[in-house]
Design brief:
Layout lengths: L11 E6 L6 H17 L4 E4 L10 H7 L6 H13 L2 E9 L4 H4 L3 E7 L5 E6 L5 E4 L3 E4 L14 E3 L2 E5 L8 H9 L4 E3 L8 H17 L2 E4 L3 E5 L2 E4 L3 E3 L5 E4 L5 E6 L2 H10 L2 H4 L2 H4 L8
Parallel strand pairs: 1-2, 2-3, 9-10, 10-11
Antiparallel strand pairs: 1-16, 3-4, 4-5, 6-7, 8-9, 11-14, 12-13, 14-15
Helix pairs in contact: 1-3
Length: 291
């Protein structure tokens, strides 16, 4: 069932691809340029990637550059949303919690702003990326980040019901299925995928999440060299509920645009009703293997 031709009245979303650095003001200017371009082109919702605010060189700098949700930086983005009249998915904000000075750790927080600049949802990343990938170097997100305590109910936006996640979360289909069961029509995975896992897994995982949930998947990504120790893969994309990549950025900073056709989504779910066919009564009942 291929994606249908697009009618001009369908909601338009913009996916912004950036190269964040340790310089927060430079990153804000780069993101603001893309958001203003998205608004000029008629998008109702713009997506920014994980770590849109900055990518620091080490955990100590990450902690020092972080801010609370009511700090200066989110105030700037709230003003930007109001100025442009569109919703913003801020895909991974380094959030200081109330006890950050004692814990010396922060949250990786996906913040959703409406067109008035108000915070309508926050999701704190639940799956932290502690991995050692050959050729890419070790990553210990838990050295500076606290895992979030819960998933967030999908939020109604001008483009559809949006389910919030962050990067490494895409490797856990239970999360995407839970969001779809809760009513999500769009899943978003703002990310900073590396140069080894990116070519191998990025598109495959995003298309899999779209097919199994019959949701649109929107993935804004970091790209290029952030500093001497870190690079990201890029290739931000939108995948439709059939698993077709309908929009994609190249390797550098920029935006890609896609229409969200909820009529097509619901038609596909009627023709291929996998959500109704799921058997959650069985999935947790497998006997544990004997020792």
């Amino acid at each position: 069932m291929s994606s249908p031709s697009v009618a001009p009245h369908l909601p338009l979303v913009a996916v912004c691809q950036v190269t964040s650095t340790p310089d927060k003001q430079q990153n804000l200017q780069a993101c603001a340029r893309l958001v203003r371009e998205a608004a000029r082109l008629g998008a109702c919702l713009a997506f920014l990637p994980e770590a849109f605010d900055f990518i620091a060189r080490n955990p100590e700098d990450t902690l020092g550059l972080s801010e609370p949700l009511d700090g200066h930086l989110l105030g700037e983005y709230s003003q930007l949303a109001r100025e442009c009249g569109l919703w913003l998915s801020l895909g991974g904000f380094h959030e200081r919690g109330p006890d950050w000075e004692q814990s010396r750790k922060i949250f990786n927080c996906h913040v959703l702003l409406d067109s008035q600049g108000s915070v309508v949802a926050t999701y704190r990343k639940t799956h932290l990326c502690d991995v050692e990938v050959p050729g890419q170097g070790p990553m210990r997100e838990s050295s500076s980040t606290i895992p979030g305590p819960r998933l967030e109910t999908p939020v109604s936006t001008p483009a559809g019901k949006l389910g919030l996640a962050v990067c490494y979360d895409m490797r856990f289909p239970e999360l995407s299925l839970a969001l779809a069961q809760a009513g999500a029509e769009i899943l978003t995975y703002p990310s900073a995928f590396g140069s080894v896992t990116g070519p191998a897994h990025w598109e495959v995982l995003l298309r899999a999440r779209a097919i199994e949930t019959q949701c649109y998947v929107v993935a804004a990504a970091q790209c290029g060299r952030h500093h001497e120790n870190r690079m990201s893969y890029g290739h931000s994309m939108v995948v439709d509920p059939w698993g077709t990549v309908v929009a994609q950025c190249s390797e550098g900073p920029g935006i890609c645009l896609a229409h969200i056709n909820l009529g097509y989504l619901h038609q596909l779910r009627r023709h291929l009703p996998v959500i109704q066919h799921r058997r959650p009564d069985l999935y947790s009942n497998l006997a544990q293997p004997s020792a």
